[in-house]
Amino acid sequence: MPHRTGSGRRTILKTVGAGVTVGLAGCMGNGDDDNGASDSDTSGSDDIGDEQSDDDMGGEVEIPNPLRIGHPSPAMAGYSVPTYSLFNEEMESRGVEIEPVVFNGFTAMVAGIVSGEVELGYSNPPAIINSIREGFPISSFLELNQKFSQQIIAQPDIESWEELEGAPVAAHSPQSFSALTLRATAESQLGDPEAFDLSYIAGTPNRISAMEEEEVDATTVFASAAIDVEERDIAQWFHNPNDDVAAEPLSLAQWVTTDDRLNEYEEVYRTIAEELTNSYEQAYETDPQELAEMIFDSPAEFPAYDSGDIEVWEQTIEAAQEDEMWETDMSNMLTDERVSRSIDLAERTGLIDEVIEVDDLVDRRFLE
């Protein structure tokens, strides 16, 4: 497992292909590893939902019930473990049900946040930036993960990076974290972000099939899938980009909602931010097997694997703990330095091409 071995700026996403008709044409296309999910059919609402009353909550801050969380694809990765284990447990203790809502890509998810279909969701700096540029009043208010969940797998006989130079390698889509992972790693290991012969295959199962058919020499998958394919001798877990590209923490996935909700329901979102951060801290202190069992008893649908569900997720969680997937100090989240470093990486590897102010991207009211 290879895992063991200045001033604020903002950036605009490149527009690729035809515009999207839902009104967020600039948003970052599909979420990583979109496995063909359709748009959510959850009805929209302008208010925050049916909050718990102070009497019911014993004087605690009101939380929407259900608390609807937007996901850009059905894929559940290691970074979502605290949300659907420890945070879910805390919400249950408050009488609040978490409802994951799956959208068909970041564009649809941002539209769902704005229309009131969900209270919050996670996105990334390029997608958030482009949404704001299109006139949608959203901000990120908390980090989700500071390290990469995408890992690089390769054919079993690949022994060096030089063998992959110019070789066929598959990413999820041109502007996904999958592509970012591959381009950034190519730059780190081979000195050129375009060193691979990159093609695009949407969905982890489809990329794994391409590996089995020997159509590509390498690709990216989430850590849990990397463990599974290695166990089944389909491919080797070749490289963990957290060993080089993200050796210093980045601001990758971020929790977002509308500016109006942050202003109108400030204490609600403060409580959500604090409890999510508490779940990150507890995730390092909780036994990985216990966390693995908790996520399969949650409302989220984490993928099952032929090589063993709990066993694979136990190893995935151990890897996330070792990588320090989550930041536990709120004052270190969404800093100018960290967000700028993430944006610089995306710009350097061709994911984005225009810079603007970081302060317009994030809302740090809960972090300072």
TrEMBL record:
<feature type="domain" description="SsuA/THI5-like">
    <location>
        <begin position="95"/>
        <end position="285"/>
    </location>
</feature>
<feature type="compositionally biased region" description="Low complexity">
    <location>
        <begin position="37"/>
        <end position="46"/>
    </location>
</feature>
<dbReference type="InterPro" id="IPR015168">
    <property type="entry name" value="SsuA/THI5"/>
</dbReference>
<feature type="compositionally biased region" description="Acidic residues">
    <location>
        <begin position="47"/>
        <end position="59"/>
    </location>
</feature>
<protein>
    <recommendedName>
        <fullName>SsuA/THI5-like domain-containing protein</fullName>
    </recommendedName>
</protein>
<dbReference type="GO" id="GO:0042597">
    <property type="term" value="C:periplasmic space"/>
</dbReference>
<keyword id="KW-0732">Signal</keyword>
<comment type="similarity">
    <text>Belongs to the bacterial solute-binding protein SsuA/TauA family.</text>
</comment>
<feature type="region of interest" description="Disordered">
    <location>
        <begin position="30"/>
        <end position="74"/>
    </location>
</feature>
<dbReference type="Pfam" id="PF09084">
    <property type="entry name" value="NMT1"/>
</dbReference>
